[in-house]
Amino acid sequence: MLNKLSRALQVISLLGPRVLALRSIRERTRNGEELDEEKITKEARKLVNAFIRLAPTYVKFGQVLSVHSDVFPEPYLKELSKLQDQVPPAKWEDVESYVMEDLRKLGFKVKRVDREPISSASIAQVHLAELEDGRLVAIKVRRPRIEEIVSVDIEVMRALSPLLKYVFDEVFYETMRVIISDFSRRIFEEMDFEREALYMRKLEEELREFPNVVVPKLLGATKRVIVMEYLPGYKVTSEEARKVIPPKELAYQIFRLFMVMLLEKEYFHADPHPGNIAVSPDGKIILYDYGMVGTLDKATRNRLLRVYSALVRLDAPLLVKALEELGAVDPTADRETLVKGLELFLSTFRGVTSETLEVETFIRAANEVFYRFPLRLPESLVLYIRMTSLLGGTCLMIDPEFKFFDALVKLIDERNLLVPAMIDEIRSLADAVLKKLKMSLLERPLPVRREGRRVNDAFMIVVFLISLAIYVLLKDGTASVLFALFGLALALRR
After folding, report:
1. SS3 assignment, position 141
2. Domain that holds residue 98
3. Percent of the chain topping pLDDT 70
4. Looking at the structure, do residues 309 and 392 belong to the same domain, yes or no?
5. Is the pLDDT of residue 131 over 90?
6. Same domain for 143 and 32?
7. In the predicted model, is pLDDT for residue 463 greater than 70?
8. Which helix (H) or strand (E) holds 124?
9. Cα(488)–Cα(464) distance, rounded to whole angstroms?
10. Are both 383 and 444 inside the same structural domain?
């Protein structure tokens, strides 16, 4: 049994100095002081090394923190993103008893199991096995005592986290409290292989429109063991994979697959690192490991598309509006000041096209904005941010000339994704205008002329359709919104 007190003391001794150093960096940054980036990077590496020594739970936690630009400065994010979820495998003797027990419960008769796993991570490892009927299967098994280890670490994390309120500002403390709460839930979900089996079925259904994508057939699962057909393939970043599918085409296929899941489907695979994607000899893409799957509702997907649209158009007011609806703007923030700050940020990209914009340059600038302005990363978007960051890196490893934003513009145009997003944007702006109008009518009521109501309804429908046509044809959201407001004013005079 792990001793909670000794673990807590170990965490304090390793992370205490790093926490105090981060506080100093945060305070000096907020006071507008110029800091030596090299020194910040060295301090960030010390934090990463502390997380590695506290593995496995803190390695997973560090990976979550690597996308929180609202909490950490950019050098920290860059170092945290290097944390690898790879550890030496557990011995077969340590997992054999419960693996064979669960296989018997599932009704499998096993002829042999390879003692050496074909892959190993902090929570699970995968063994190749042959059933008595001759089928080759992959068996994903939970590492021994992993639930006990994670449980103790989460308890210690929750017990120590209130101390942060005495070290940092309230915004930092509240953000970290939410991050820890969400992480505590997600890590136990990732250890539940029955849940992973559910995700496999969901994604298999969603990916039927992609005949070149293969999801391994699920054969059975318990909370500790999951059995699926064995589908060998070439690692997506390997030379063998590049020989089957040309690098430029392969990178876009992978990008398109994951972004369609994200922007159009209910569920998306949230862990597109190279070890989870393979290419079969006949040119099909194989997806492995469904432990990390996210979900976004339709409204959130449309708002994300509106963020992309505002970024492409360098439109700060609409960007703030979309970020606010996503829950990414601090409720106490001054909106006018935020718009001015984002206009300054976006001005640095004027004249830059999607073909020439480097994703690393943009992410670095965006991280700086999130850190310095009253913006926060909603927990509902953590997996989305992490997935897109991993996806961009994987595509660059496949094709060093891959351009993330160029591919994004191409995909949005291919799938005609902006029309529903712009309908959502016009509806949102119209709702805001109507809300203000209703409040003014409460103060100064106006007589209602019922006989013209049907005419007004038809008139507003025509105005809406023309506004939408203006956007689709001219790609000008401002013009379409102004036309809609002009039509609303005319209708109110009728």
Report:
1. strand
2. 86-149+191-231
3. 83
4. yes
5. yes
6. no
7. no
8. strand 124-131
9. 10
10. no
Amino acid found at 480: S
Match 């994300």 to its residue by tokens. Answer: 304
25 vs 376: CA distance, rounded Å: 18
- Which of 19-33, 296-310, 410-424 is predicted most confidently? 19-33
Q: How far apart are the first and last CA of the chain?
A: 77
Containing H/E element for 278? strand 277-279
Tens-digit pLDDT profile for residues 377-396 = 888 888 998 899 899 999 99
Quick one: 262 and 351 in the same domain? yes
CATH number at residue 98: 3.30.200.20
Q: DSSP labels for 310-376?
A: HHHHT-HHHHHHHHHHTT-B-TTS-HHHHHHHHHHHHHTTTT--TTT--HHHHHHHHHHHHHHTTB-
Q: What total number of domains does the chain contain?
A: 4
Predicted local confidence at residue 104, as pLDDT: 96
> Where is the domain boundary, 415, 433, 467?
415
Give the three-state DSSP class for 113: strand
Q: How many Cβ atoms sit within 10 Å of the Cβ of residue 160? A: 16
Count of other CB atoms within 10 angstroms of residue 365:
15
Q: In residues, how long is the chain? A: 494
Give the span between the Cα atoms of 60 and 78, in whole angstroms: 15
Same domain, 12 and 24: yes
- List helix spans (H) across 191-226: 193-206
Q: Could you tell me which residue, 227 or 454, shows the higher pLDDT?
A: 227
Domain termination site, one of 366, 386, 415? 415
Please say whether the beta carbons of 369 and 77 come within 8 A: no
Q: What are phi and psi of 35, to 5 degrees?
A: -115, 150
pLDDT at 401 over 60: yes
Record the tokens describing residue 399, joined without a space: 């094709």
CA distances from 295 to 61, 142, 261, 329, 347 (A): 20, 24, 9, 21, 33
- The answer to whether residues 389 and 278 belong to one domain is yes
Place of tokens 């006989």: 451
pTM: 0.82
pLDDT digits (tens, 9 = 90+) for 28-65: 988 888 899 999 999 999 999 999 999 899 999 999 99
pLDDT mean over 105-127: 95
Q: What's 474-489 look like in SS3? A: HCCHHHHHHHHHHHHH
Residue type, 431: D
